[in-house]
Design goal:
single chain, Aspartate Aminotransferase, domain 1, 3 helices
């Protein structure tokens, strides 16, 4: 899977958009692509190169620990909260598992619904 394919997959989620808040040149190989929700601007994926193509994804702590034990290429996230974020080296887990991790991150960072009034 290429960097562009990974970004394009993340863009299939409703209201997701691609951002480059850390880099002036979006197309540069060292640029971090940040995938965000349009409604709340929360990030659900960080895509970058560091010893290969990587993606940082939010994850519930118990699930994050489980994934780290099952897949050698899943580790506490680089430059993120180690309890709630994982770094996934692309190719370290089957594509269906990677897609599930992306969906999980997307759902965890979704805008919260309005509270119902009594």
């Amino acid at each position: 899977m290429t960097r562009r394919e990974l970004i394009d997959y993340c863009l299939t989620y409703p209201d997701a958009y691609e951002d480059y808040p850390f880099d002036e040149l979006a197309g540069a190989p060292e640029a971090w692509a940040v995938m965000r929700h349009r409604a709340n601007r929360k990030s659900f994926a960080f895509i970058y190169e560091r010893g290969g193509l990587c993606i940082n994804l939010k994850c519930e702590p118990l699930r994050a620990d489980f994934l780290r034990q099952v897949y050698a290429g899943v580790a506490p996230a680089y430059h993120m909260n180690k309890q709630h974020w994982n770094t996934v080296h692309i190719g370290a887990a089957p594509e269906d598992v990677l897609y599930d991790m992306i969906e999980h991150s997307y759902k965890l960072t979704m805008p919260k619904g309005k509270k119902k009034l009594p």
